[in-house]
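Troubleshooting: if your tokenizer reports a length mismatch, compare your output against this known-good record of 214 residues.
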Amino acid sequence: MMQSSDDSGYVISYMMLRKATGIIGIALPVVLVAGKILLESPGIQSSISSYYYTVMRDVFVGSLCAIAVFLMSYKGPGKNDDLAGNLACIFALGVALFPTEPALDPTPHEKLVGTVHYMFSAAFFSMLAYFCLGLFRRTSPDRKPTPRKLLRNKVYKICGYTIIFCIVMIGMVSQLSEGSPVKQLSPVFWFESLAIWAFGWSWFTKGEGILKDL
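Known-good structure output:
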């Protein structure tokens, strides 16, 4: 059965949304670092979320809100797809609207908000891993996966396990004392960036930015 021109337009729109989501994720860490260096001062923040307290606050919050909107618009073949997209949207908004606690002398209220931020962050990254390892790798039971689909599934698998690895590592390095030499290298920032890049590439691939079926 041939697709109508209207249906084709919808498919293109969904693919563009997925690619846009991926591009924002891939670009976000680079833009935050470069923007702060150019507009404020050199150096890398301790985490992606810490850019909330820099001149790049609006870029950080705006990017997460844009990702949240794109995630809410995600449609798939089952109810799990819609539910996952809606939950991921809520978690992304939570990360944006409940900032991490400031590095210096946080108040009890700021500590409480920071705890909520960490909870939303963990839930958000976990949902992104679920997209990669669960939803994106599915194939219609009445169709044999194409060679390109099998390659895309490998990308999703690598991205999903990368996100999980980063979640675990962030939890581990967060337990280190502030005086630890490892903390001086901003490990949370790098693991968060790696997780966000994995998220970005998985969605860019899902939008057929790469490895599109021939």
